Amino acid sequence: MQIEHYGGLLSVKVVNGEIIATQLLPPIDPEVWMPFKRKDLFKISVDSEGKTEVNCLQGSGGPHKIEIMKGNSSNQFSVQCKQPEKHSKSKNREEKFASWIRDEVGIPPEHGVQGYQMELLKIKYLSIQQYESSCSFTCLQPINSLSNVPIQPGLFKGTYGGHGVEVIQLTYEGNRLHGTKVSGDPNVPAGKRSIIVHLDEPLVLNREQQRDLNSIKQLQNEGCSLPEGQEAPARQPFSIPFGIEDRGFVQLCEQKDIPTDFCRARYFGTGLIAMHGFRNSSRTDCHLVIFDEDVFAFLWMELGSLSVYSRADDFL
Ligand SMILES: [Zn+2]
What we know:
Helices cover 15% and strands 39% of the residues. The protein is built from 4 helices and 18 strands.
């Protein structure tokens, strides 16, 4: 979804002879193991006389007219709702905002939404509202499985701190693994490359080397990559360095029944950070840590936090 900064994910499929387009919204933070929340946006059907009908499914006012237009290229289209007033029937603005916040963070706004987070939520709400009646869409790159890769490509739900859970797409290009944002935020918007992993720089760390941030940063200078030609072991120690903020790692491992103290592989990489509005963007040193085919973590050394990612296999 081409929503400024925030992006978004739309699933289009055929159900009982109709084409249904459903928006897939990330679960609340940090529950990356949970399925997407689903919101039907529009459908295309054929009536008994063979005439095509296109209906907007947003809001409580019932199905109503929507127009679908071809985009500039064959993998793009846009929609324009003809009766957006049907979207917010019987709800005043405050109620609508409060129920949106409940969906977004899992709790009513009066229960502990912090000042800074509330600011982010307000900005997001006002921005995405502008796309309720008209939005453009671009088809994602197809996901094909590959051989000899540390983790299969695909969509993942990941934790992005105050911005909540966002969706990234993992793709391979030469000896780089890229994680591109499908949904984003005003700091690092959708479409940007959140993660770049150097597959030619595998790492094996003992417990002492990952005791705290300083010991890991020290490695950076000394070089801790495996000597040329040496294979990384199939299992290696992993610890959350002291002082690192865990953005859902322990909870995810509990949910997925994954041991927290060993990982399958570790690589050097960089993560994209920026100020609000994508100002002063820079790539900072990070580690990608793979636990199994569906779970990896990303250690942001500059931010002092550990994000977790869980494969999104419920996007169809
Ligand atoms: Zn509509």
